[in-house]
Design goal:
Blueprint lengths: L5 E4 L8 H16 L5 H6 L5 H12 L5 H16 L10 H10 L3 E6 L3 H10 L8 E4 L11 H10 L6 E5 L2 H9 L3 E4 L8 H6 L1 E2 L3 H9 L1
Parallel strand pairs: 1-2, 1-4, 2-3, 4-5, 5-6
Length: 216
């Protein structure tokens, strides 16, 4: 087994297949309102806060883009479809969480999503109790790629960053974990691992592969 004390997980795109679910809602909106090329700016928002997402969208479509109205409608579509435990989990989530618990490793979550949403989704999926600490985007001043959220997670579980792995799917998430001194593992979701990601992290295909890597 690798020598480590904790694993800090991102949530969207790592624990849940939520990045794809949200993108599907935005694609539906784009068809409804004739918004061109929605996938490119959406992918640029991966791993960012709500505020940064709005900034990216406004830059892409201009100052008259009714982002708040569209975001509200996309959110309504998303919650109507996926609330109440219907949000699909990524393959291997329970396997890796049980593996870490069985080996007395600390488990934390570092997600840019609002705390209320994070807690509700983890609770609805029946996995909230696995996490020793949860740190969310509304708890830190600087969002990913700044390291603040990962540093706070390590502080809360009492583990030095260098003794923790970070499991991420987004470029900004990997940059954040690396900047904080954690050991990043990338499990690509919507975005493939580019050269930078391969330099900064261990890249594997699935959470099952993360378990195999940690066991080695």
């Amino acid at each position: 087994m690798k020598n480590f004390d904790a694993v800090v997980f991102d949530m969207d795109g790592v624990i849940f297949d939520s990045e794809r679910a949200v993108m599907d809602c935005w694609i539906a909106l784009a068809k409804k309102y004739n918004i061109p090329n929605i996938e490119e700016p959406y992918l640029a928002c991966t791993g960012t806060t709500d505020a940064k997402t709005k900034e990216i969208m406004m830059n892409a479509y201009g100052p008259d883009f009714p982002y708040d109205d569209y975001a509200k409608e996309a959110s309504k579509m998303y919650h109507e479809k996926y609330d109440g435990g219907r949000l699909p989990m990524k393959h291997g989530v329970l396997k890796i969480l049980n593996y870490l618990k069985d080996n007395n490793k600390k488990i934390a979550l570092a997600s840019s999503t609002r705390r209320e949403t994070v807690v509700n989704q983890l609770r609805d999926a029946g996995i909230l109790e696995f996490f020793d600490e949860i740190v969310t985007g509304d708890m830190v001043k600087r969002s990913k790629p700044a390291p603040d959220i990962f540093l706070m997670a390590c502080e809360k579980i009492g583990v030095k960053p260098g003794r923790a792995f970070a499991v991420e799917d987004s470029y900004n998430g990997i940059r954040s974990a690396y900047a904080g001194g954690l050991k990043p593992i990338m499990v690509p979701d919507l975005l493939p691992a580019n050269g930078e990601m391969k330099d900064l992290s261990i890249v594997v295909r699935t959470l099952d592969d993360v378990v195999l890597y940690l066991m080695d």
